Amino acid sequence: MHTNNNKNIYFKSLSSIAKPLAMFHNPNATIPTLIIESGVTLGRTNAAYKKSGKIEATERFVEQGTSAVVWLWGVQTFKKIGELIGKKIFKINDMDFDVGFDYLRNPLENISKRAMNFKIANILTSTALATVFIGFILPKINHLITNKTLSKQKQAKKEKSYYQKQPSFKDFKKSLKPSSSISFTSLSGGAKYVTHLLENNSTARLLMTDTGVVSGRFYNGRNKYERIENIFRDVSSIYFYLFSTNHIVKLLNKLTGNTNINPEALKATVEMLGDNLEKTKTDKFNFLNKVKSDANITDLRKIEKLFKDNKVVTLEQFNEIFPSFTQKANSISKLQPELSGKRLLTKLQAIDVVSKGWVNDDKFLHELYSKATKGKYNRKEKFISAKEIDNIRTSVDEFTEQINKEAKKTTGLLDKKFIEKVANKNMLKNFAYYAVGTAISIFALGTLIPKIQYMIRKKLTNNDEFVGIKEYKN
User: Fold this and answer.
1) 196 and 320, same structural domain?
2) 307 and 160 in one domain?
3) pLDDT in tens, 228-252
4) Do 221 and 323 have their domain in common?
5) Phi, psi of 287 (to 5 degrees)
6) Which domain holds residue 138?
7) 5 lies in some domain
8) Do residue 203 and residue 302 come from a single domain?
9) Number of domains in the chain
10) Which residue in 82, 185, 353, 439 has its CB near the most CB atoms, within 10 A?
11) Phi then psi dihedrals of residue 53, to 5 deg
12) pLDDT-based confidence at 153, cuts 50/70/90?
């Protein structure tokens, strides 16, 4: 077994990049998007200033900055306000549960309909409020800021005449000042599951909000040229905000044979492999056989037949066919809470039960999911999709295969230090790949898209002047 000192050395060697890398694996993290937003705000503001001057640059800065703050934290803030209302007025005290569900987990089984319905309404309302603000109110505020700036350059009579045309925003005129924040906003797709995504997945929140933002900015365009620019910029930005980084990381990992494994899952795997290598000496040619000892072909055929028409089976169904694996099957079935009073097994879990490799050990699997999900994996009130659980498990197999390939390239010993060396290299690569993906997203959003936007402007209007103030000049 590892001593405490050995574990401390291991954690120290990986902790410097494990924590920032873990943010990219956390679907609810906002820091990666905030990094992108900061670069985009500066890039778009600078591009606007170079093309048409201070007025458009101010609009871009206010638009990007304010919408980013609401985009990233608005839904969560509105949700907390709603929860306070729920506790004070409706006496709903416990809202620490997820509303997602699938064939393996359903946290709502033991939750009252009153609490469930309130939470769904609260999250959907919070998302709607953030969307309406960014898509429909913020553009009006931005227009007023521009109007105020332009009014200083006009005669008093023209200034008064212009503001009289917009009586619905008189109340804003005295209090509005340009924001100094940072940009953009989220779409998702059956109320419970959508609500779960909006609460626990920042990409889903941003995509949902983006739907309203795109339509709001298009609707509030001051003329047809600004509407064309807005629709191009906002729609083309969605991919680079929400998906491009992960696609780039996936491509780079595939090209280099690296594994994109959750850092916490990686730690659990390295500890397990280190413990087993200390207890059972093995060479690099037998390593994979020890780690992934496949089940015999007869058992695998039985599992294929058992899961032919089922995504899950009950523990009782499995034990009826595999009575000699009852104890291990019972342990692995506890990787998720009971569903409708039944213990369940997925196909991948069933294969783990009948396999004898180090990665198939039930104690390791509990440690793996505990660390990778921060203890949520078997809590009744929390939801983790079966797909996410399977991805965590398969990433362990991929990482052990990576170790095997690395071991065959060297003449050194296959021991705990070698495993840790491969793990460090794995995390450094993934950190670099996420950095590259983030940099490409910032470049596309802050430089490339604005360049194309201004090319479209030039083509449509034959000049580089800010199209948003054409009506003011007229």
Assistant:
1) no
2) no
3) 998 999 889 888 887 899 999 999 9
4) no
5) -55, -50
6) 31-250+439-473
7) no
8) no
9) 2
10) 185
11) 100, -165
12) low
